[in-house]
Amino acid sequence: MYMKQPLPPMGWNSYCTVNCDPTEDLILEHAEILVSSGLRDCGYIYVNIDDGWAEKERDVNGRIVARSDRFPHGMRYLTDRLHSMGLKAGIYLGCGLTTWHGDAGSLGHEFEDARTVAEMGFDYLKYDRHPCGDDPVRDTVEEYVKMGMAVKNCGREMVYNLCEHGTTNPWLWAYGVGQLWRTGFDVRDVWDGDCGIMTIVDKINGPIFSSAGVSHYNDPDMLVVGMHCQNDWMGAGCSDIEYRSIFSLWCMMSAPLLIGLDLRRMDETAKTILTNKYLISIDQDSLCMQGRVVRREESKFDIWVKPLSGVRWAVGLLNRTSEAETLSFSAEDMGLTNNIKGNLLDVWTGEVLRFEGGFSAETHGHEMKVYIFEPIF
After folding, report:
1. Is 243 within 8 Å of 205 (Cβ atoms)?
2. pLDDT 10s digits, 7-30
3. Which of 21, 80, 186, 240 is catalytic?
4. Which of the following is catalytic: 50, 103, 123, 128?
5. Is residue 128 annotated as part of the catalytic site, yes or no?
6. Which long-range contacts (CB under 8 A, 24 or more apart) does 105-112 make?
7. Dihedrals φ, ψ of 205, to 5°?
8. Domains of the chain in sequence order
9. Is the pLDDT of residue 35 over 80?
């Protein structure tokens, strides 16, 4: 059965911290940090185990099994522990003959593997496409729909993340199959470039922004907020201003908020960013409408707008340059007339400002300022 997930899921994923080497101790340590740091109470409730948890071979009954050296007490023990902390448990399966790590893949075993992870007590499934050079002819859409049916019939409510990396334009067909779908390649801890934040954001802001809504979300991949090059393969790292902008962008896109940061290395700045109550409320707004760029000067700035419930709008001013710039927006950018006046809440300072048809703000290089506009009559 599908998990009822009316809002974008929030939590933490193991991949950016340990690549394909998750362990029971690591998962429980991060779960405890989610609780003790207050992240759980902000909504970060999913603890998701990525690739590397399963054995390379199935057992004598053909069932996928956890690595006993890394999960000595078994997966049911782990999910029970997570549930006792008020958290939910996520797991990973590979859509291929093997996973990327080379472990047992779920291609041809979709129904038994969905039942197995359901019996283990998991609440979330990331199903990751792994093509191989010697694959037979494959139909990715068919494979992901089949796993969707397997999740539907697994006997447990479970969120289904179709991680096929945007290869089949899942935003056109996956609504109703699962709750979220990856839109492209894996994110890296860099602002720009082939795998950078701006490249990912520009793809999602294109013609696919309207595909998001209640219980179906474009997934730009995990949050890199606070990493500061925590490992060499994730990239050179970003500045704290860029991390603020990344979090702002994910929230404006109604994206799943799955932290990639090694929480044992989380500093106060990263914690302040990740727990910003105003931005989380924008991401978790009940309309679940993805924000979009309504005005752009190429390579210089974007003006973002996201309708919110309660007759409100979120507006983002993104400075794409590396230099300070004054950016402005008007009521017309929100689709309104200039006669409408109201208040602007600066989500980073908490300051309430007057809005009378237009507004300007000084921005640092790569900074995104975000405001919540509420009309007053």
Report:
1. no
2. 999 999 999 999 999 999 999 999
3. 186
4. 128
5. yes
6. 105/130, 106/64, 106/147, 107/138, 107/143, 109/58, 109/62, 109/64, 110/143, 110/146, 110/147, 110/149, 110/150, 111/149, 111/150, 111/153, 111/154, 112/62, 112/63, 112/64
7. -75, -10
8. 10-283 (3.20.20.70), 292-375 (2.60.40.1180)
9. yes
